[in-house]
Amino acid sequence: MLHLTAGRVAGLLSRRGVAAFSTSGVKMASHGGVTEQTDMSVPLYCDRLDTPLPDRPYKDTLSAADKSLKQKEKGPWNSLSKEEKLALYRIMFNETYAEMKKPTGEWKTVVGGIFFFIGFTGLVVLWQRYYVYPPHPRTLDDEWQAMQVKRMLDMRVNPVEGFSAKWDYEKGQWK
Amino acid sequence: MKSTMSLVKPAMRGLLAKRLRFHLPIAFGLALVAAVAFKFTVTEPRKQAYADFYKHYDSMKEFSAMREAGVFESVRPTGK
Lengths: 175, 80
Prior knowledge:
The structure holds two protein chains of two kinds. Chain A is mainly α. Chain A has seven helices and four strands, in the order ααββαααααββ. Chain A folds into three domains: about 45-100, Cytochrome C Oxidase, Chain D; about 105-135; about 135-175, no CATH class. In chain A, the strands form two sheets. A two-stranded antiparallel sheet of chain A has the order 1-2. In chain A, strands 3-4 form a two-stranded antiparallel ribbon. In chain A, strand 3 (about 165-170) and strand 4 form a beta hairpin. In chain A, helix 3 packs across helix 4. By secondary structure, chain B is mostly helical. Chain B has helices at about 15-55, 60-70. The longest helix of chain B has about 40 residues, at about 15-55. Chain B is rod-shaped. Chain A: Belongs to the cytochrome c oxidase IV family. Chain A: InterPro entries: Cyt_c_oxidase_su4, Cyt_c_oxidase_su4_fam, Cyt_c_oxidase_su4_sf.
């Protein structure tokens, strides 16, 4: 890899088909083989919310009926019927804004996936609890905790507003 | 009167000043309210709690109790 000379690189490129580099084309499928390439050097159509007027009309090749409709469009528009106006729109555009903005329901997949993986993680954590965690330190036993509480009360921890303030020293019980 | 074709020119300047004129007094007021509320719900009760605690506090009695419980290292409980 380190000693790849320029000559070797040119050889590799030529074998992969320099045609792909000479025209301004783009492979549509990525894995080897010759696939249909869109010519990126001419204006393209796109359905985008932020581009209301794409670079070219949607229908490039017009049928005879479409061509006659386009001729009629050059006259007064009041003479066009509603269906003709819609047909003209569909010649220029693929989807309407309403169709582009249509909700996809993708969020259900996303939320479902989130819950699924949270659930799976829960199972993993449960398995860890039984197979990975070391034994508890003895300071978490109930006995030890009781001894700890007694010592804290003996030391009068936070006697004004906090811990020991809640203990009744005369009666020996919590207030 | 304006013709039906032209619109009112929107405000082009002083937008931040207008917003501040409205929001700053509110901000100061809320901050003041928060401070006063904290004073009367937290600091005054706390001062009172400390005053009450120390009004009848016998430090020698508390010390003896702690000593007997065995929490000190400098003095052992009276007995040993």
